[in-house]
Design brief:
alpha+beta; 153 residues; Jelly Rolls; four-stranded antiparallel sheet; 5 helices; 8 strands
Length: 153
Amino acid sequence: MRRTRTDLGHLAAIPALEGCSPEELSEIDGRATELWMRPGRALCHQGRFAKQLIVLLDGTAAVTRGGEPVRQIGPGEVVGGSELRIRGRHDVTIITKSAVQALVISAADLEDLRDAAPEAFARLTGTWRPAAVSVASINAAPVRRPALRLLPS
């Protein structure tokens, strides 16, 4: 893969990166590889370990779990952040539906980013706020907690 310069304005427009400083965006840019993929290419496979973080810049992809459709994702969505953070496996498969332009950051480069720009790392991996799409939580059911009952004293 070849590293390319990405327009920092493109990065600033990604919802997960809103609020990042130009320096943080530059740190991301220095570690990201811009790729163009044809329709039908797998971004990740269910059950395999996460090896990279992917930010869709353009195009759409279909998310499936166990071969069943879950939803579609598009520009600005982040794939694989939480799985890389916990060194986990993908619980969905994501296949490009159209031509896709994406930024790819390897696990090693993401580790470097954590040291160089911790807030940018947190935003991309979903620990900053829920803007990043966690592949592990796509279409997850909300957690229901039982009501708290007070015991008589």
